[in-house]
Design brief:
The complex is a heterodimer of chains A (about 150) and B (about 375). Chain A is about 45% helix and about 15% strand. By secondary structure, chain A is an alpha/beta fold. Chain A has a 4-stranded parallel beta sheet, sandwiched between helices. In chain A, strand 1 (about 20-25), helix 2 and strand 2 (about 45-50) form a beta-alpha-beta unit. The two termini of chain A are about 25 Å apart. Chain B is of the alpha/beta class and about 375 residues long. In chain B, helix 2 (about 25-35) packs across helix 8 (about 220-230). Chain B starts with 5 loop residues before the first strand and ends with a helix. In chain B, about 45% of the residues are buried. The chains are: A alpha/beta (about 150), B alpha/beta (about 375). The interface between A and B is medium-sized, with 29 and 31 residues.
Chain lengths: ~150, ~375
């Protein structure tokens, strides 16, 4: 997997999705750091935005990301039970349920939105999640909500 | 008197009894609440014409008595008229009652000082739509109309020359007239969420047409009815079982009709959902009227939907609407006002219901029915063990 992605990122013409990823400060953002430090290969499709907690995720952020041209949105926090703010990630699951239903009813592909838990030590898992999600988005293609002129 | 008790009541005042609908119980009860100081203000509907009424706030019992007679209006957004904590009584259709309860959850209305006198409702009609309908379906001049009545599934208009013109409601709704769309699929007919539920269903025998069926739902409901009895304004007699059964039957029949309408209007979208929504929203002129009238929106000036979107956005869909979709998924009561006020005729209520219904079903949460917190905000952490 690692070799394949590395080949893709080096100068092929294949369409690369744009993915916005929201990481919580305490776990997933640390996970991203660990992935870098552990030199786990991952596609360069993800733009990470740090939020203090996955519970901070506002539906507005996700909707705005899609409208601005994101092909997919990932959001990630600490594993259930590990939240730095006790239950922020639990709140995130409720918002996720609503957003998922909203995205489906709106007619966006189900694959474009994903919530996952990544802890600060799970660098390898971070790389895996990003790689898998990128593959998933490549299959469904560019987002129909992408504004004109945005690549 | 206990919660759950059912009575049939009427006004003692001859004048109110004849002018008011079904024995004028509601009018008498509201006037008595003002006279005896149970409340400081009453919200009533003032008739503007044969087809329209506006809600007014009054502290004058005479003005309350003057409004006797049935009249429908748009759902009442109580917090717009009154300061928080005002002792107030208001007659309320199920959607009025639900909107009041939702506003109370959002700190806009103090539920403890608000007496909600619920009225049974089988649906309302839009004033402009009714004029159109009279013109197209009945071939009548709207200005000639004297009265309106629903009997045996027919909508009957009486003209000034005393003639009656009847057309079946099903037929009217087939043609896109009749009750507002949101009313057609609304399944809440008896306002059990209000303090006291009043209506003419279940009034039988000699009292038919002369009495109002009353169901007590809360302690406040007991207070307002007992207050009226003490003042000598109304008389009541316990409702018999036959009446109760008939009321349930009417309610059940209405719910069945609503379910059929729900299936008809909210059937799955054929083709691309995204095209459907983009098409529907493409006419939006960003006037914000839908948000202004929304009874469950208490966000005020700094609302997320308006704060983060602007008319100069070049997005394929308006962020304003997307945020409202999410907002209303757990709180839309389906009152239909957004569709009524939209200047470019976007079927907003219809769209909101498409988003809201599956979620409200999944969470088994019906907004406005009681003081339960919406799932979006009310994370029951103890139950979930976190």
């Amino acid at each position: 997997m690692a070799e394949a992605t590395a080949a893709e990122t080096t100068g092929t013409d294949e369409w690369q999705p744009k993915i916005v990823m929201f990481c919580c400060n305490w776990c997933s953002y640390g996970g991203a750091d660990s992935a870098g430090m552990g030199r786990f290969q991952q596609p360069p499709t993800v733009r990470v935005i740090r939020v203090m907690c996955s519970g901070r995720m506002d539906p507005v952020f996700i909707l705005n990301a899609f409208l601005e041209g994101a092909d997919g949105v990932l959001f990630s926090g600490c594993h259930i039970g590990d939240c730095h703010y006790v239950n922020g990630n639990y709140k995130a699951t409720i918002k996720y349920k609503f957003l998922k239903a909203m995205v489906n009813e709106l007619g966006l592909e189900d694959e474009r939105l994903k919530l996952d838990w990544i802890s600060a030590s799970e660098g390898e898992r971070y790389a895996e999640v990003v790689t898998e999600f990128t593959e998933q988005i490549k299959k469904v293609g560019p987002s129909p909500l992408k504004p004109e002129g945005v690549v | 008197m206990d919660i759950g008790d059912c009575y049939v009541g009427w006004a003692t005042d001859e004048d109110i009894r004849t002018r008011g609908a079904s024995g004028g119980l509601v009018t008498a009860m509201l006037a008595a609440a003002l006279e005896k100081g149970l409340v400081e203000a009453v919200v009533v509907l003032k008739k503007l014409g044969e087809f329209e009424a506006v809600p007014i706030v009054t502290s004058d019992p005479e003005e309350v008595k003057a409004t006797a007679g049935s009249m429908h209006s748009v759902p009442i957004v109580l917090s717009r008229y009154l300061e928080y904590g005002t002792k107030v009584a208001l007659p309320a259709k199920p959607c009025d009652a639900r909107s009041t309860i939702e506003q109370s959850k959002r700190g806009q209305v103090d539920i403890d000082t608000t007496y909600i006198v619920g009225l049974n409702c089988g649906g309302t009609m839009h004033p402009a739509g009714t004029r159109d309908m009279l013109d197209v379906m009945y071939k009548l001049d709207p200005e000639d109309i004297k009265g309106e009545e629903i009997d045996k599934g027919k909508l009957i208009f009486e003209t000034k020359d005393g003639e009656e013109h009847a057309i079946k409601i099903d037929e009217l709704e087939e043609e896109g007239y009749g009750r507002r769309e949101s009313c057609q699929y609304c399944a809440v007919n008896i306002p059990r969420m209000a303090d006291i539920a009043c209506g003419n269903w279940g009034v039988i025998g000699d009292l038919a047409g002369k009495g109002t069926f009353v169901e007590i739902n809360t302690d406040k409901g007991i207070a307002i009815l007992e207050n009226a009895i003490d003042a000598g304004a109304v008389e009541i007699t316990p409702a018999d079982d036959k009446g109760k059964a008939i009321r349930e039957k009417v309610d059940g029949a209405m719910m069945k009709v609503a379910a059929a309408a729900d299936e008809k209007y909210l059937s799955p979208i054929e083709g691309s959902h995204l095209d459907y929504y983009m098409n529907a929203l493409s006419d939006c002129i960003n006037c914000g009227a839908c948000k202004t009238v929304c009874p469950v929106c208490a966000c005020g000036e700094g609302a997320k939907c308006t704060e983060f979107s602007s008319a100069s956005d070049t997005y394929k869909m308006s962020l304003f609407h997307l945020v409202r979709f999410v907002h209303l998924m757990d709180s839309c009561i389906g009152c239909g006002q957004c569709t009524d006020v939209c200047p470019v005729d976007i079927p907003l209520t219809h769209i909101y219901r498409r988003f809201a219904e599956p979620m409200q079903e999944e969470f088994e949460y019906k907004p406005g029915m009681d003081m339960t917190t919406p799932p979006f905000f009310g994370v029951d952490l103890i139950e979930e063990g976190h």
